[in-house]
Amino acid sequence: MAVSRFLTSINERYFEDYEVGSVFVFGPITVDEAEIISFATRFDPQIMHVDPVKAAEGRYNGLIASGWHTLSLMMGLYVDNYLSAVASRASPGVDEVRWVQPVRPGDELRLRVSVLEVRPSRSKPDQGMVISLLEALSQDDAVVCSLKAMNLFEKRK
Fold first, then answer.
1. What residues of the chain score a pLDDT lower than 70?
2. Quick check: pTM over 0.90?
3. 8 Å CB contact between 64 and 103
C-alpha cells in the first residue's frame, strides 16, 4: 500500500484535498508508562491501567494503556497532521471503535488514515463529509486500535 502525501499544508487544506483511496501515515508517538497511569487514574481506573504490580499478575501480564488513552493519542496525531486547521468544521461521530491488541509502555504508535468516502453535503453546499479509517499501528505494524471517523470540511471558496 502506497503512502499518500497532501499537496497542501494543513493551513491550506479544504474538502477538495481529501481523495478516496489516499492513505496517510503519521507519527510515531511513544507510549509512556507515567502517562498511562495518569490518564487511567483520572478516566479509566482499572487495575490493568493503574497498578503495574497487580497488572503483572493479571490477564495481560503487565500494565496496558486504557483504550480511551490510545484513542486520545490517535486523536492528537489526527488533529496535528490530517484535519485541516482552516476548514475542519465538526464531526458527527465515529463508528466501529475496536481495541484489537493491548498497548504497553514503550510501544511506538503510528496513525494510518485511509480515506474511504468523500461526498459533498446535500443540505450545505459550502461543505462536505469525509469518512476515514483510522488505525493505530504498533512498532511491529500490528493494528492495535481502529475506528471510522466522519468529518465535515469547508469547501474552497
1. none
2. yes
3. yes
